[in-house]
Amino acid sequence: MKTLLFHLWLAHAWCANPGTFDDQAQPPPPAEEGRVESYREVVQRILKTSLREGQAYSRLARLCEVAPHRLSGSPGAEKAIQWMKQEMESAGFENVRLESCQVPHWVRGSVEELVALGEDGKPLGVSLPILALGGSVPTAEAGLVAEVLEVKSWEELEARKDEVPGRIVFYNRPMEQGHFSTFRAYGGAVDQRSRGAIEAAKLGGVAAVVRSMSTRLDDFPHTGSMAYDDDVERIPGAAVSTLGADRLSRLLATGKPVKLRLKLSCEWFEEKESFNVIGELVGREHPEQVVVVGGHFDAWDVGHGAHDDGGGCIQSFEVVRLLSSLDLKPRRTIRAVMFMNEENGVRGGRAYHHQHFEEMDQHVMALESDRGSFVPRGFTSDANPEAMAVLQEIVGLMEEAGIHLMNPGYGGVDISPMRANGVVTVGLLPDSQRYFDLHHSARDTIDQVSPREINLGAGAMAALCYVVADLPETLRRNVVDEE
Ligand SMILES: [Zn+2]
User: Fold this and answer.
1) Are 63 and 80 in contact (CB under 8 A)?
2) Does the active-site annotation cover 342?
C-alpha cells in the first residue's frame, strides 16, 4: 500500500510538473564561437521544438490521404508532386521547383491469384495471399498451372536443377532473425526476390514465387522490385505472405504432388515524364553551397508508403520548415529534395546528379531518410575520417534525446550518385526492429507511424543539417572512390 501511495505521488508529481525530469540539464560550458560545441543550445532548441510543434506527422497524414499510392508514372505520384509543390510554396520555401526525369511505368492490374491444386486439379483450400513483384510480366489470362519446386538456397536450386524445367520455383529462405539490424537480414534474403525469376528461367522454370521479405509471420505479402536479364526469358514473379509460404511448405512436405495456378494481370507501359520536387532555405553567406536533404517520393502501390518513404520526404520538408520557423538561417543553403522513382529505377536520384553535375563541388553534404520513421538512434555516413569526426561531434550534441550513433555506412540510394563526386552522404538511422514488418506491404500506413518518433527524427535531421550548413569551415569532402 505504501508503495502504491508512493507511486501515486510520483505519478502526480510527474504530471503536475512535466519539466522536472526533462529540463534539468546543466548549463553548457561556454564554447568557442564556430566550434561544434557552440551549437549545443541551438541543437537542443531544434529537437525540443520538433517534439513540441513539429508538423512531420500531421503533414504525412495529409500526404497519405491525398495520394496514398505513389508508384512512378501513376496518377497518385503526379498528384503527390503537385501537392508537395504547393505545400512548399505555402510554407514559404525559396526556389520551389520541379525538375524533370523520365520514369518507368508499370501497373499492377487487378488480378493476383495463387491457388494450390491437388492431383485432380481441384483447389486444396489453402490460402496463399500474393502480390506481383514490381516489374513482373503477366501470366496468360487463364493463368499458369505448373508443379512447384521449393528451394531454400541457390545451392539447392543448382543441386536440383534437373527438376526445374516446367516448374514454378518457390524460394522459401526466411530473413535471418539473428541480426541486430533488420537491414542486414533483408540484404541477406532479398536476392531471392531480385534474381529469383532470372535464375529460375535460366534452368527452364516457368515462374518464381518468393517468400515475402518480412520479419513477421502474417498474411500480408510484401512486394518490391525484381530484375530481368535481357538474355533470359522473362517469367512472372510474385511474393507470397510468410504464413502462406509456411502453408505451402507444409503442403509440399506431405510428399503429395502439388500444382500451383498463378494469375497476374500486371502490365508495362511507355516511360513517362515525372519530377523531383525541390525547395530551399537559402544560405545567408554562401547561398551557392548546398546541403541536400531528401527522401524518395514514390512508393509501392500497396499501403500508403507511410514509412517507406513518405515519412522520410516529409521529415526532409520539415528540416526547412522547422529551421525557418525558428528564424535559423544558416550560412549555406539547405535544399529539400523529394526524389522520384527510387523503388524501381532511381531515375530521380540520377537525374538530380546529372542536372546538378556542375555544382557538385558546391555540395557539402547529402542526407537521406529512407529507413522508416521510427525512433531515431543516429546516422550512418560514408564520410572520410576527418569529416566523420565532425559529424560525430554534432551527434554528440543530441545524446540526451537518445540519438547518439554516427556509424560508418551507407547514406542512401537517391544520394549515392553524388558519392562519385566526393559529396559526404549521410543516412538517418532509426531503430530497425519493426521496419520489415510492414515494408512494401499494405501494412505501411499512417497508423503505424508514431507522431513523436517521426517528429524527433525530423528534429535530428534539422539539427544535423543546420550545424553542417552553418559551421564556418566547410565539412571536409570525401576522397573520391578509387574504383
Ligand atoms: Zn524506401
Assistant:
1) yes
2) yes
Residues forming beta bridges with residue 455, ordered by sequence position? none
How far is ligand 1, taken at its centre, from the CA of residue 186, in Å?
13
Q: In the chain, list all ranges with CATH 3.40.630.10.
A: 32-106+270-470
Rounded distance, CA 112 to CA 135, Å?
A: 14
CATH architecture of 109-265: 3-Layer(bba) Sandwich (3.50)
What is the rounded distance in angstroms from the CA atom of residue 448 to the CA atom of residue 239? 22
What pLDDT does residue 7 have? 45
Ligand 1 centre distance from Cα of residue 305 (Å): 8
Check if the beta carbon of residue 208 is closer than 8 Å to that of residue 168.
yes
Distance CA 115, CA 400 (A): 53
The set of residues, in sequence order, having a beta carbon less than 8 Å from that of 292 and lying 6+ positions away, is 335, 337, 363, 365, 366, 367, 415, 418
- Residue 147: HSE in the Cβ half-sphere, 13 Å Cα cutoff: 12
State the CB neighbour count (10 A cutoff) for residue 351: 22
- Domain 32-106+270-470 grouped into CATH 3.40.630.10: yes
Beta-strand runs (E) in 207-298: 207-211, 237-240, 259-264, 267-281, 286-296
What's the pTM? Answer: 0.92
In degrees, rounded to 5, the angle at the alpha carbon of residue 248 between the alpha carbons of residues 244 and 254 is 150
Q: What is the mean pLDDT of residues 413-440?
A: 97
- Pick the catalytic residue from 342, 343, 368, 453: 342
Specify the pLDDT at position 5: 42
56 Cα to the center of ligand 1, angstroms: 17
Interval 160-179 mean pLDDT: 98
Over residues 338-381, the pLDDT tens digits come to 999 999 999 999 999 999 999 999 999 999 999 999 999 999 99
Which regions of the chain carry the CATH code 3.50.30.30? 109-265
- Report yes or no: 294 and 336 within 8 Å, Cβ to Cβ: yes
311 alpha carbon – ligand 1 mean position (Å) = 10
